[in-house]
Amino acid sequence: MDAGSARFSELFGSFPTPIAIVTATDAAGEPYGFTSNAVCSVSAAARLLLISVGKGSRTLPAIMSSRAFAVNFLSASGRAASQVFASKAADKFADVAWRPSVVAAGAPLLLDIALSYAECRVENMIEVSDHWLFVARVEGIGVFPREPLLYRRGEYGVWSRHKADAEELSAL
């Protein structure tokens, strides 16, 4: 079967992924951010994660210059913010409360809508096609007792352990 870009998108759209907003600040302290589902763990022992950033992203220069960023994994209450940060809106932070990370060069932490966050320092940058990959050491972590926001085939959903348990039991 053809492995073109449409099929590639279909492949990665076939399963749910967590949604994150990656944030950074530039040298003037201006906040930047974008919605991403391209975040993965590299090494738990070394506390490394990886993000993928498109070369056209307005956040890319802030990450490259500060060599730091925050990954804000979204809770169910972050859906509207996810849509704003996925857009080309001029002021993506207008309706989102945030505080600057102390350990990630002021990268915005979205505490009200985050399921969890990782404050990161860039260890390695790799140019790949139309993206940059950043391998970063996680220097700070926050985790909150909220339900995660998920994305699959263009739709949002919320994973609930209670719902998953009920469906698993009914399938037996």
Shape call: globular
Q: Which strand order does the major sheet show?
A: 3-2-6-9-10-5-4
Helicity range: 10-25%
Please name the CATH topology.
Answer: Pnp Oxidase, Chain A
**What is the CATH-assigned architecture?**
Roll
Strand segment count: 12
User: Rg to the nearest angstrom?
Assistant: 17 Å
What string, H for helix and E for strand, traces the elements in order?
Answer: HEEEEEHEHEEEEEEH
Instruction: Tell me the structural class.
Output: alpha+beta
The main β sheet shows up as: 7 strands, antiparallel
The fraction of residues in strands falls at: 35-45%
Indicate the mean pLDDT. Answer: 91
User: How many domains, as an integer?
Assistant: 1
Which superfamily, in CATH terms, is the homologous superfamily?
Answer: Electron Transport, Fmn-binding Protein, Chain A
Characterization of this structure:
The strands form three sheets. Strands 3-2-6-9-10-5-4 form a seven-stranded antiparallel beta sheet, sandwiched between helices. It is α+β, with helices and mostly antiparallel strands. The protein starts with a helix and ends with a helix. A hairpin with a 2-residue loop joins strand 9 and strand 10. The chain has a single domain (5-171), classed as Electron Transport, Fmn-binding Protein, Chain A (Pnp Oxidase, Chain A, Roll), CATH 2.30.110.10. The protein has four helices and twelve strands; from the N terminus they run αβββββαβαββββββα.
